[in-house]
Each structure stands twice: as C-alpha cells, then as structure tokens.
C-alpha cells in the first residue's frame, strides 16, 4: 500500500483590478444534455433571461449539444487514423459555438440583448497543450464591455486561444473549467453548474440507483471525487474553485430544486458523514516500469503532459496509473525502458473528510470486497480517500457493495448544512 497526496498543479493568478467582486455577476454553465435540442436551448435561454431580469449580470457557458463532441472526434478518426492535435482542436471546438450562437438567437427572440463569444473572443488564453490546454490568463475586457451594455454573454465552453494563437481545447468536460475560471476572473458570487442530475451524489446514480444527493461537499472531497471518476465536474474546475474561492452550485437544469454546494469544509460536514461517496473509473491503464530512475521517468511523462495518478515503488520497479494510453506508451517507448501495462483493471474509491479521524474505514472496505471474492490489485490512500484497483468487470458490483456497507443510502447519512 502506498500513500499519495494529490499534487494539484499551480494555477494562474487571475487577480487583476477586474476581480473585485461586482454585485450580481453570475456564471451559469449548461452541460451537453441540458442543451441537447432546440427545446432545451430555448429553456436555457429562458433561464438566462430570468436571471437577467432579476438584475444580474449574466455570463453563460455552454457545452456542445448532446453528443456533438463525440461525433466530431469520431469524424476526425474516420478521415485520419491519427489526426494532428491542432486540427482536432479546430474541429471539436465548434460544437460549443453552435450552442452559443443558437442560444443567443433564442434570447433575442425573448426580447433581450445577447452576444455569443468563442473562448478566444472571450479572452481565455491557454498554454499550447492541444486537447488538454490549461488556462494561463483571462482577458475579460470584451465580456465586461458586453455586460456593461446590458447583454447576456454566452461563452463557448472548453476552449481558448493559445499563447501561439492557435485554438485549443481544455480536455473532456472542460466547459466546467471555463465556467469556474470565468467566475474567478469576473469576481462572480457563485458559479452555477447546470447538469442532467440534481447534484453531486454519494455515487454515480447510473450505477447506484439508491445514491443520494449530497447537500454540501468540501473542495477537498470534490477534488478527490473528480480525480477518481465522478464525471460530474472536471477536476481542474474544482482546483480553480478551491484556489480562487469560488463557491460552486451543481444543480439540475430541468428543475428549480437546490443542488449541491461545493465550498470550504465546515464542522457540520465532518460531524455527519464519515464517507461522502464512492466513485469509480474504468478508463485508466496500469503501467509497470523497470530500468529507469524515477526522476527521468516522471519528468518524461510530465513533459508529455501525462497526468500520472497512483504511484507505487517496489525496489527498482514503478507501478503507476495514467489515463492517456497512447501518449504514455509513446513516452515509455521513447525512454527505451522495460515496461508492461494492464487494461483489465478499474478503480473504485471511497472518499470522506470524516475518514481522517476515524480508523477502520479501510478494514471495512477490505472485508466487504473479500466477502464478494473481489481481489484488490493495487491500493492507494490519501488522508480522505482510499482507492482500490480491482478487475474491471467487478467495479460496478464493488461500488454498489461499498455504498451499502457504508450505509450511504440511509437518511442517517444525510449531511446537514445551512
Ligand atoms: P454535463 O454534460 O452536464 O457536463 P456530465 O455527463 O459531464 O454532464 O456529468 C454528469 C454525469 O456525471 C451524471 O449524469 C452522472 O451519471 C455522472 N456522475 C458520476 N458520478 C457522479 C456523482 N457522484 N454524482 C453525480 N453525478 C455523477
Ligand atoms: N463538449 C465537451 C465535451 O464533451 C466539453 C464539455 O462538455 O464540458 O467534453
Ligand atoms: Mg461535464
């Protein structure tokens, strides 16, 4: 077993004279399902207009409609087995432009002013890592001007312009990060993430139907959840929220109900729940590498922007997990080291700030998995997370069993907040 403390990368300082909180600026982000067709886009337009009529300066960040991004990626691979990353970004960034321009038209028809902007027009400057670019600066002048002119501003999510003036995308799910970064740069009071579930749940509701909505989750817990597969927020958006103190409200785009608040930890969060959730992911590959120094190995991976997760060292051998299969393979081949990989494992994680002060969580989890005859192949821990790699085909069964073992479906586990 190994102990890893997640090291989140440094974030750009977005503080400029523009970041002083301006009363009533709201950033509202709508995911792909929420803008999937004309009716839903019209409903989003109505929600934005309502927020504007309530006196807010409204900035909306929209994702591409439904499966548009997947369709565009597929199309690229039909044309070419290995499309160049720059051209892929040019292509897949258009999905969000479609949603924003259509929504602006719907807002005009409701009698309000609106303007759609690409990430580049909105002043979102990134590094040059195509497909997983990081925001390095936000030059929000144009957004401010549009807001001052009483317009609703629609910003295409998940994209920016690089320091080399190319269009970049921020990685799958990146519209969340666009929204939070804008909320930070504009000094918005909160960032609302509208999605197809009514909040952050104790587990993925698609896998655990009994999963309950959490009222409040701390930044640290949400970081761990997002890092270990809870797709509902992109990891980097949570990093931004934490380091720039942006409160997030994850809620349904199909109802007015209150969702989940992501914010600083408070005592009540700790008192009520030992475990907040069980997450899972089946997208990582486990690598075993020998014959290279740790410094050389991890530097080469970092240079290729590979996000390495769980790392275990045993003698001269390193075991780690990574999501970017083809890039990781290329780096290891380039190093000329001995390596092997496994694609047959998935990770499940139990997460909870209360874990810090309560021993016995690991014991209970191991007992639960053992009872099911599920063998753990690799285990990693942080102060508030225990992650288990188990055979991929067993992941969903294990998630349900742990959810039940920690009584996450019982109302007792409901976490109070103000
Ligand atoms: P959007 O298109 O709005 O960005 P996503 O598909 O990216 O939506 O994220 C929402 C999905 O995240 C939900 O439909 C749900 O299946 C999944 N999900 C995974 N884990 C969780 C969790 N712990 N709580 C809520 N949703 C989760
Ligand atoms: N449309 C992009 C994706 O599907 C970005 C997003 O939805 O956040 O990943
Ligand atoms: Mg998403």
- The helix fraction, in percent, is 25-40%
| Proportion of strand residues | 15-25%
Uncertain ranges: 1-9, 15-22
Q: What is the global morphology?
A: globular
Q: Number of helical runs? A: 13
What hetero molecules are bound to the protein chains?
A: adenosine-5'-diphosphate, aspartic acid, magnesium ion
The chain-level structural class is alpha/beta
Provide the gyration radius in Å. 22 Å
The CA-CA distance between the termini, in Å, is 38 Å
Strand order of the largest sheet: 4-7-3-2-10-12-13-11
Biggest pleated-sheet summary: 8 strands, mixed
What's the count of strands? 21
Name the average pLDDT.
Answer: 91
Quick recap of the structure?
This protein is α/β, with parallel strands linked by helices and 418 residues long. It has helices spanning 38-53, 68-79, 85-92, 94-109, 141-148, 175-186, 219-227, 235-243, 267-272, 294-303, 325-335, 361-371, 395-405, and strands at 2-3, 25-30, 57-62, 114-117, 124-126, 135-138, 152-156, 159-162, 167-169, 190-195, 216-218, 247-252, 260-263, 277-281, 285-290, 311-314, 317-322, 338-342, 345-351, 378-382, 385-391.
Describe the structure.
With 418 residues, this protein is of the alpha/beta class. The chain is 33% helix and 24% strand. The protein is built from 13 helices and 21 strands. The strands form four sheets. Strands 4-7-3-2-10-12-13-11 form an eight-stranded mixed sheet, with helices on both faces. The protein has a five-stranded mixed sheet with strand order 1-20-21-19-14, sandwiched between helices. Strands 6-5-8-9 form a four-stranded mixed sheet. Helix 1 (38-53) links the parallel strand 2 (25-30) and strand 3. The protein is globular. The relative contact order is 0.12. Residues 1-9 and 15-22 have low confidence and may be disordered. The site of adenosine-5'-diphosphate has 19 residues, from loops.
